[in-house]
Design goal:
Layout lengths: L13 E2 L8 E4 L13 E6 L3 H4 L3 E4 L6 E7 L5 E7 L3 E11 L2 E11 L31 E7 L6 H7 L2 H4 L7 E5 L6 H9 L8 E6 L4 E6 L4 H11 L5
Parallel strand pairs: 9-10
Antiparallel strand pairs: 1-8, 2-3, 3-6, 4-7, 5-6, 7-8, 9-11, 11-12
């Protein structure tokens, strides 16, 4: 299978699939979250051999610059993934592999965090904020933003493949494809969208917004890239 280049960020690795799976990805001691940018993160693959991975596997991860994932092995032939990212953030990692003639998939959420500045220095002479434009030009609606809200146990391998799809992300404004987990994200930006999900709505829940913040679509996140692309294309604004 062709590997998807691209991607994302080092790492708080949290298992996303609720169901038991023979295939696992386990952070090696010293690679537990959180990790720093540029750190080599070793993720041990349990339930598959190196021969299983060779030619029968695909590692999916977000199509962004600054992230690499390589399939390697120890001297004893134990397979692992070597993950490195240059940037902070939370992204998705999925491994799909044929084991014993059966297709197996495992998904993880990946985040990179950096410790606070140990000795922050105040700005001795801060510049005043510029005066706002009293009559700004209206912002044209010519792109879509995407926000997905889920929680641990609701993410499936199909969801991971959708979330890491380069084809899907290419239809959304660059840097405007956000994913929040109700069990992990506690910042104000995440809570705003978590609170917007209807109480009885199935998770993961998907919002598409115009670049002016108007919700143009919301509903369950499909487990098919084709279906997700169809929904986005139906709501793409008309240019010109």
């Amino acid at each position: 299978m062709e590997k998807r280049a691209a991607a994302a960020v080092s790492v708080v690795l949290v298992l996303l699939c609720g169901a038991a799976n023979a295939l696992e990805i386990v952070p090696h001691p010293g690679s537990e979250n959180p990790v720093d940018p540029y750190q080599n993160v070793r993720l041990d693959v349990v339930g598959a051999t190196l021969d299983d991975l060779k030619g029968n596997s695909e590692v999916l991860y977000p199509p962004m610059r600054g992230v690499t994932v390589n399939e390697v092995a120890t001297w004893d032939g134990e397979p692992y993934l070597l993950f490195e990212s240059q940037s902070l953030g939370r992204y998705w990692l999925a491994l799909v592999v044929v084991v014993g003639g059966k297709l197996e998939a495992v998904t993880y959420m990946v985040e990179v965090a950096e410790g606070p500045d140990p000795d922050p220095q105040p700005d001795p002479d801060p510049e005043p904020d510029p005066e706002p434009d009293p009559d700004p030009d209206p912002e044209p609606v010519e792109e879509l933003w995407s926000i997905v809200v889920g929680e641990t146990g609701t993410w499936t391998a199909g969801h991971a493949i959708v979330l890491t799809s380069k084809r899907l992300r290419g239809l959304v404004a660059e840097g405007r494809f956000r994913v929040f987990d109700k069990d992990l994200d506690t910042n104000a930006s995440a809570e705003e969208w978590i609170d917007r999900v209807p109480e009885d709505a199935p998770l993961p829940h998907w919002f598409l917004l115009s670049n002016k913040g108007r919700i143009v679509y919301e509903g369950p996140l499909p487990e098919s890239v084709d279906k997700a692309v169809e929904i986005v294309e139906r709501h793409l604004p008309t240019k010109g």
